[in-house]
Specification:
By secondary structure, the chain is mainly beta. It has five helices and 40 strands. The strands form eight sheets. It has an eight-stranded antiparallel sheet with strand order 13-14-15-36-35-37-33-34, covered by helices on one side. It has a six-stranded mixed sheet with strand order 1-11-12-4-3-7, with no helix packed on it. Strands 2-5-6-10-9-8 form a six-stranded antiparallel sheet, with no helix packed on it. A hairpin with a 2-residue loop joins β5 and β6. The chain is elongated.
Length: about 475
């Protein structure tokens, strides 16, 4: 049984006979493909690993009678030593610079715990799983890992953030430019927001338009009547992936007449009633062929007829109508109390502080289930191999945030089905797709980790960020 342990990733291996284990000897060796440290055991054991500075520390649920040390003829490794820790023991590997990629696994007949340090250019794993790559511990419960996988159509570079349920971090969506859904690069968004790590999220149009449902800290910034899969982020709660989120909004006048909201924070079309707030821009950017009404706490404060571009200010909402929708708004007067209802048809999503939908769904109940047709995903997204971004959630609440490079010689990209299969390999119980192609990108601690297919960062409208609590 092999286990990949990546730098800084806290991993626990639990085995039934761990309490009786004893380390008898420590030894090491070097080959052209790797350096190796081996501990001989009398029975299987349990262990945890962590990275501190330039040291890999493996705490062993096993007894050692004495301190032992080995030196390996590898320029990366200064020394490795085993020392007793009461009833347990500890292996410490000290490196000359940074901790390289490593792999820890148990072998039988005879029992051994092995720590391998592959040399650059060598790989482990294969078509069924990831090859070792760079990794980083970002704080309690948050790790970053690079891997190269082959799902049957060529090598794909992947970048993975793993967020444990008891971590020191939280997730939230971030608009592209300050408080608005104007475009910004991930690097710009990171500097403004202070996120530890972030990826691109929702689809968007060339106009100021988020394609899908978007709610950030109870402020609606986009909507979609077509049922779409979304990531639901309750305030202080456990994230979930919910299918079939479909927005329905209604405005009701004091006389009881109602009109459906056709969109949120996007361009106004014929006969549409659009809801705007300061998450869109400084003004509604509309033409003069309509009526616009400013609401504060649901009360009409200002009405403009035949004049677009009403300013958008904090704490107010603007209803903008054309044609039949304008006629509906013309029935309002200053001081009228307007009733505004909005729902995604899902109690968890309605109550959550933040929601971001894109789609399609990739995994449900641990099985591949790609719902491109049901979610009316465009063919250029649903078909073919491309750079991809997505998120998965394990049954225990662990969140997996994945970016896959594509459209290059070094990385073939993924189909949606391949991405779904890979999420299943990673242990996801549910998973969904975000925007991809040239938008697919991951930034960690201000550094771009992947290779965006455009050759540079593409400005986007929405990001998913990881923040310290």
């Amino acid at each position: 049984m092999a286990r990949f342990v990546l730098a800084g990733l806290l991993l626990t291996a639990s085995l039934p006979a761990a309490q009786a284990a004893k380390v008898s000897t420590l030894r090491g060796g070097v080959t052209p493909s790797r350096a190796r440290v081996v501990m001989d055991l009398d029975t299987p054991l349990s262990y945890t690993s962590r990275v501190t500075g330039n040291q890999l520390i493996i705490d062993l649920k096993a007894r050692a009678d004495r301190t032992e040390m080995v030196r390996l003829r590898d320029p990366r490794i200064q020394k490795a030593y085993l020392e007793p820790q009461g009833k347990n023991s500890r292996l410490v590997v000290v490196f000359r610079k940074n901790v390289p990629v490593y792999k820890i696994f148990l072998l039988k007949n005879p029992q051994r715990l092995v720590v391998d340090f592959p040399r650059s250019g060598s790989t482990s794993g294969g078509k069924s799983g990831p090859a070792a790559g760079r990794s980083q511990w970002l704080g309690k419960g948050l790790t970053y890992r690079e891997s190269t996988v082959d799902l049957g159509a060529g090598r794909v570079k992947t970048y993975l953030l793993t967020l444990a349920p008891n971590s020191d971090f939280r997730l939230d969506f971030i608009p592209g430019y300050g408080r608005t859904i104007q475009k910004g690069t991930l690097s710009m968004i990171q500097k403004r927001s202070g996120a530890v790590a972030l990826v691109n999220a929702s689809y968007f149009d060339s106009d100021i338009w988020v394609v899908g449902n978007l709610k950030i800290q109870d402020k609606w910034l986009g909507m979609e009547t077509t049922p779409r899969t979304g990531l639901v982020l309750p305030a202080g709660g456990v994230p979930s992936i919910q299918p079939g989120l479909s927005y329905h909004g209604t405005v009701t006048r004091p006389d009881g007449r109602s009109y459906s909201i056709g969109g949120v924070d996007r361009m106004r079309l014929a006969d549409e009633l659009i809801l705007y707030n300061d998450g869109y821009d400084d003004t509604t950017d509309t033409n003069a062929y309509g009526t616009e009404v400013r609401l504060e706490d649901g009360v009409v404060r200002e009405i403009r007829k035949g004049a677009g571009g009403m300013p958008l200010t904090a704490g107010s909402t603007v209803l903008s109508g054309n044609g039949a929708a304008a006629a509906f708004l013309n029935g309002l007067r200053k001081g009228d109390k307007v009733s505004l209802t909005q729902t995604l048809g899902n109690p968890e999503a309605d109550q959550a502080a933040s929601v971001g939908s894109a789609g399609p769904q990739l995994v449900r109940d641990g099985q591949v289930q790609v719902t491109s047709s049901a979610e009316e995903i465009a063919p250029d997204i649903a078909q073919g191999r491309a750079p991809r971004t997505g998120v998965g959630i394990k049954k225990d609440g662990t969140v997996l945030i994945l970016v896959a490079d594509g459209r290059s010689r070094s990385s073939a990209g993924m189909t949606l089905a391949e991405m779904a299969r890979y999420f299943v390999q990673l242990g996801a119980d549910r998973a969904m797709n975000f925007d991809g192609g040239g938008s697919s990108e991951m930034v960690v601690n201000g550094k771009i980790m992947n290779d965006p297919s455009d050759g540079s960062e593409r400005p986007i409208r929405v990001a998913l960020g990881v923040f310290r609590k």
